[in-house]
Sequence to fold (172 residues):
Amino acid sequence: MMLQPASSPGPQLRDIHLPPAPSWWPPAPGWWVLAVLLLVLSLLGIEWWRRRHRAWRQRRQVLDELERIAGQHQHDDDAAALASALHQLLRRVARQHDALAVRQRGDAWRQTLARVPVDTTTLQQLLALEQRMYRPSVPFDRAASVAAARAWLQLALKPARWKPAATEHADA
Fold:
């Protein structure tokens, strides 16, 4: 037979109970900060990729157009038409960096072309395009002109390659 303890005068004590496990939702504030940070970085990455893809696509279109022009005029005997097409392509690309490029002639056009770091031979070849369009008697090397246009365009289509204009230098 077992003896029963006498009832104690104090409160009846129960076993220790653990609190319920924390819920996974809502997450702690640190997880919210991490989620927002990841979202912002993802959006910035997507925008960066879109800009790079757009710039790449634009470069590809311009260089494809150059190849189309060169192929179209390869067998023609019309050097003036080739010079005109190359000149128009150069002006369209230059207009993206200098709105006045479509109206420039002579030294102003030379300065715009020189804002892209190309060698002197390439620059002279590009300047000869304008003369060849209006003077059929000027000697014209088709292959060298297309190669010069290609070299200039490959550098000109990268905005970081453009040097500031002389007026921009004076303001700085």
Notes: Residues 56-163 form one domain. Confidence is low (pLDDT under 50) at residues 168-172. Helices lie at 29-72, 79-95, 106-114, 120-134, 142-156, 166-171. Residues 11 and 17 are 17 Å apart (CA to CA).
